[in-house]
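Entry 14. Structure prediction run on the chain below.
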Amino acid sequence: MGIDEAKVGYEQISVEKMSEGAGEFGKEVAEMYEYTTWPGYDGGVPMLKGEDLRNMGFEIPMTTVEEYTKKEDWTLALNV
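Output returned:
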């Protein structure tokens, strides 16, 4: 089975629910994810993006998520 055939899901849960299932560690992980949502991964400060770097004359190779997932070995994660 390839990664493009795997069934995945997503359920957004509260910090409290994550804490119930995984204790203090779960709370810290949930708070980290919450922070990347607001104010955001950049902390509310504008950040450089690939296009900005190219406009400055830097050629930085970028990989799409699709390219990355197709290139990786997912055997262990998919239990196959």
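The chain has a mean pLDDT of 83.
Filed with the rest of this week's runs.
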